[in-house]
Amino acid sequence: MRLPSRLTPGRLLRAMLRGRPWLAAAAMVFGALWLVPGALLPLVVGAAIDGGIAGGDTARLVWLAVLVLGIGVTQAVFGGAMDFLSAGMWMHGASTTQRLVSTHTTRLGASLREQASSGEVLAITSADIDKIGYGFEVIGRVVGSIVAFLTVGIVLLTYSPLLGGVALVGVPLAVAGIGPLIAPLQRKLDTQREELSAVNALGSDIVSGLRILRGIGGERQFLGRFRTASQRVRRAGVDVARSESWLTGAEVLLPGLVTVVITWLGARLAVAGTISVGELVAFYGASAFLVIPVSTTTESTGVWASAYVSARKACRLLSLRPLLAEPSEPVRLPEGPLEPHDAESGFTAVAGKLTVVDVGAGAEELASRLARFTDARRPVLLSGVPVERVALAELRERVVYAHNQDLWFSGVLADEVAPDVPGDVSVETALWAADADDVVAALPDGLAERIGERGREVSGGQRQRLSLARALATDADVLILDEPTSAVDAHTEARISERVATLRRGRTTVVFSQSPLWAAVADEVVTRCS
């Protein structure tokens, strides 16, 4: 789906609606087909009273009774179809929002962390997609209510211009009377949404740092903070419920007043002989039916207010742009081994060699500049080509920066280790070089084992070796490793360093490590960067 150039909640929702026009049109049509027969039912009953009962026409009464039955069956059929299409509308709204947000967060990559909290992203993908989906779900019923209201009003005008006019004017006024309650509800929904994002972010931070909190005895303090944040969410929810209760009360009161006025006027007209008893029953039934359009409009107003607030949050996320700009005219990197050079520090890694960098502080900043995870103040070159002139997709494919604290997503181990990139390094070879064969062998299903989020099923050292295998499997032209063996013992580190040196021979490898075991297998050792 193509997003508008200037993104607003209204434009986003309309663009999503245009994405499935036939589904939206079908929901509206069947919404009308569902409610219009019900709107005409009181008129059929009134005709049966006048012509069949009062007039003593048995045949007419039987025919109208059959017509009432047919109306009931028609409503059931069309109502089922509308429910099916409304569910499809909900799925379209929720899934499209989920897909847009997921795709955009992937495109943002490392830029997302600096511009949005994890709680905000979590709130959009867990709660907001539901609210947007519900906003789409009620569209068919709202259109059906409008069509049914107009149908009833026009028919009532043919019976009595006075009562028809009261219905056509009174119901819109009743709906308009609900309007002042919408703005306060929307403000309170905004507040609730902000508090929910904050508590989600706090919960995410607590879960990710639970081991550390236990180590320093900080569980009680953070429990207190979480309770305080949860109470703020509760109070915001109570405020929302209070506004929604006023909205529900107005939904009953305002159309009820219209029904009372129509019934009172109809009774007076019936006593005066202006209308018949059957017409009075038809008017009363029609006025009672008009509660449905008002209640549907009231419900949809609250739902749309929530959907608008949620769409605004999605728009904020979708409006974020990567911190690293794509070059307007990308330059292709030369084929073969690449030679990284950082002008700020004076560091150069010889193409096709294993370079070990022992610089301590500043190593992570240097690695980020070489792989262009941050923009440098002075030029960073790859075989003479400035990294900012290389398309990010090509740069990420040919230059891989593997940090020893890189995260794992949940999934099958074989899929986690072997990324979908071209290369000559198999999963088995990468596991051998990272000395992770025993880790896989110990798992019940081997490479088919499903690993949970952050790889909690394995120890820190095992996870580090699997992460190294994942980096080696990319077979990148430039592989940058940050302390790849900091969590393993010396014997394991010696095997890993020798195997990596063998596997990566002829390709550029930069290892940031202060271990002498890595220095022993290096082609170049850098101990100082100016």
From TrEMBL:
Looking at the keywords, is Transmembrane present? yes
User: Where is it localised?
Assistant: Cell membrane
InterPro entries, sorted: ABC1_TM_dom, ABC1_TM_sf, ABC_transporter-like_ATP-bd, ABC_transporter-like_CS, P-loop_NTPase, Type_1_exporter
Keyword Membrane in the entry? The reply is yes
Entry's Gene Ontology molecular function annotations: ABC-type oligopeptide transporter activity; ATP binding; ATP hydrolysis activity
Spell out the coiled coil positions from the record: none
Keywords assigned:
Membrane, Transmembrane, Transmembrane helix
Membrane-spanning parts: 21-49, 61-85, 138-159, 165-183
Membrane topology recorded in Swiss-Prot or TrEMBL: Multi-pass membrane protein
Q: What region holds the ABC transmembrane type-1 domain?
A: 25-306
Gene Ontology CC annotations of this record: plasma membrane
Pfam families listed in its UniProt record: ABC_membrane, ABC_tran
Q: Which PANTHER family match?
A: ATP-BINDING CASSETTE SUB-FAMILY B MEMBER 10, MITOCHONDRIAL, ATP-DEPENDENT PERMEASE MDL1, MITOCHONDRIAL
Q: What is the protein name stated in its UniProt record? A: Multidrug ABC transporter permease
